[in-house]
Amino acid sequence: MFDTQAPIVAAPMAGGPSTVELASAVSEAGGFAFLAGGYKEPTALADEMAGLRARGRPFGVNLFAPGVMEVETDAFAAYAQELGPEAEAHGVSLDPEPVIDDDHWEAKLRLLHADPVAVVSFTFALPGPEVVASLQSVGSRVLATITTAEEARVAQEAGVDGLIVQGASAGGHSATLNPHRDPEDIPTSEAVARVRRQVDLPVVAAGGVDGPAAVDELLAVGARAVVIGTLLLRTDEAGTSATHRTALADPRFDRTALTRAFTGRPARALVNGFVERHREAPTAYPAVHHLTRELRRAAGAVGDTDRLHLWAGTGYRQAPTGPAAEVVRWLAD
């Protein structure tokens, strides 16, 4: 599917960790890499695409596909009020009016039509068959990120070329098409097996990859490749913030959990005070993301790990420092 030496794929990690340098290092080591299109202005994404293309390696781009974006205004306002003390700790004000956007969806699609890449993947929702076909017509393979066999069947009907099956152990946002639903807590290998029993499409596995044994297990159940994200967060080329890097190695953070507290979508993070204090956050993405964004920026700037979104998969203790190429070689060997 990716025409690479190693069946290792660098996940698109929006918000900073995915960089041109990281993608290039993974590609040069024999893997395949995605650029994260989420949370980026189209011009910034175009610049990254040009920078990576200049290095002569094929790559993919991931987009956040807009789904149903409903906000219960009373619940949102109550959550904004609940977060007041958190914001005051950093001198930040919170806007109680929900902000909803589609992350420059149409502009990014126009960019990928005008400047095609090898692979386009989608997260959070499934685009219509006409979008899938239009990207295929300019030479891109199209992958849908899904979490269940039922979602896989819907993606197949949309005409995608393959699936990224994300297990519940993956760090960061869950790709579930229903943000009100927490992903079922089963091994990624079982999620892959269920999908393969229902859908005849190439499958890539994501979630819980903490070493070569996990790669072996996922390939053994039929995955064509495995996606790594958390294992790359502390590498030299990743754009992970210093605060996030520190937390990943801090023994005080001894577990991860799914939370909606930071963005209004289920996402796996290290359990810190913010996660514990706000267990009943509303399901309202991207409104909650915009609500907490300045607070999270302020927390990160001063090293406040108690209020920062510390995305991490269950294998975060195995995330090494050093060159990303060494991680790819370690897994591939």
Automatic annotation (TrEMBL):
Catalytic activity from the UniProt record: 3 propionate 3-nitronate + 3 O2 + H2O = 3 3-oxopropanoate + 2 nitrate + nitrite + H2O2 + 3 H(+)
Cofactor list: FMN
Matches recorded under PROSITE patterns: DHODEHASE_2
Ranges in a coiled coil: none
Sample GO molecular function, one term: nitronate monooxygenase activity
Pfam families: NMO (PF03060)
GO biological process, one term: response to toxic substance
Domain of life: Bacteria
CDD domains per record: NPD_like (cd04730)
Gene3D superfamilies: Aldolase class I (3.20.20.70)
Keyword vocabulary terms for this entry: Detoxification, Flavoprotein, FMN, Monooxygenase, Oxidoreductase
Record-stated family: Belongs to the nitronate monooxygenase family. NMO class I subfamily.
Protein name: Propionate 3-nitronate monooxygenase
